[in-house]
């Protein structure tokens, strides 16, 4: 009765004296009844305790049941109803807590399962990392619903959501790149169709993306591979466009005789594009800006370039006039002779204008340089330097021509004096020989007779013998820059002709004059 918490014993009491056997017979049923109550109470306590221990086991951090048998043995000394009610209240609280935790666990598991499906991640290994009981399908198998399990599930969900957000951002950026490349490359609809579902899903909010595998790494890799393929195709096409625009830039610079920027030279741009060190779009933009600058500078140089072309044309006419003057049959009545005569007259007039053309060109070039604070370059060389050297060499040539004329006058005076003193009796044979040789030199440089020899026009009859102009270097890139080639030391001013006249007027008498002296003597 003390164990069961019973305080009163209801037994029939006879007023008379009852023997011990009768008292024993009356007590034995009561005792048996109490024993049955105790056994039943023990069973109730055991069931409640087992349920409590099971729930505590599920709620425990380490799933350690502890010494449940010893706890049950201790409880057999107190099987009162009050104790039973206390256990029952404890069991109901644990069941409520378990139910709440189980609901959260199932909710978390379902969310993990959904996120794993969207991300294309295996669900089993993911929850096994938290607790193996979470992936058990058996009904009899209880799931661990401890605080660590709940925290692990919450942390896993947070990580999966972060991964989902990261993949969505990555896929949206990749899809944006794909759309740009599709538009740029004018891709067919067949290539776009394989990503149409992804495109329609990515416009939804994060919580609205629930399709299985839509954010899988496999699909991301596929999209990135497509972007890489299109990017390579774009690079190849941009490379062709860059080369085309570079050729256009070189053509503009060549027409304007400007040195193009070497930073975008084809051999350098090819290596930079292939190595990936530079974006072809940026390189193309750089070349486009260079084309605009080249066009602007070409427009600013147009007036000077036109005058340079006129100067070159005048020099060409001067060279033609030199060749024309060398032709002994230029006055013969042949076909086209009158046309050449007209051209020669015009060429002579044009040649007289060359000095003023050069002077005007120098003045305009100086004005251009002062306005822009930079030198006027023609194929890499400064135009002023070329013009100054041309003008200097022309002045030197004019000086040589003047000296030649003075020398010729002196020779005429000397011959006239000799004729006045000794007389002139040339034989017909000698006269004929002299007449045949009036238009050229003998190989030894001496003349025949007393007639004044005609110098070779190839050296002194031309305004520009070996005088280098821009046309002299046509086909070369830096003929204006090579000032050594424009040096006056390369000019041929007819030194062989002058030596001929020196021999005529020298101290040694010619054989013809010696014969005349002997005859007269």
In percent, how much strand structure appears in the residues? under 5%
Cα-based radius of gyration, to the nearest Å: 59 Å
Quantity of strands, as a count = 2
Structural class: mainly alpha
Apparent shape: rod-shaped
- Identify low-pLDDT runs: 427-466, 471-521
Indicate the mean pLDDT: 76
What does this entry look like structurally?
- A two-stranded antiparallel sheet has the order 1-2.
- It is mainly α and 521 residues long.
- It is rod-shaped, with a radius of gyration of 59 Å.
- It is built from 18 helices and 2 strands.
- α8 (217-256) packs parallel to α10 (280-300), α11 (302-326) crosses α12 and α13 (354-372) runs antiparallel to α14.
- The longest helix is centred in the N-terminal third of the chain and has 40 residues, at 20-59.
- Residues 424-470, 502-521 are annotated as: Disordered.
- Belongs to the MAP65/ASE1 family.
Features:
521 residues, mainly alpha, 18 helices, 2 strands, 67% helix, disordered C terminus, coiled coil
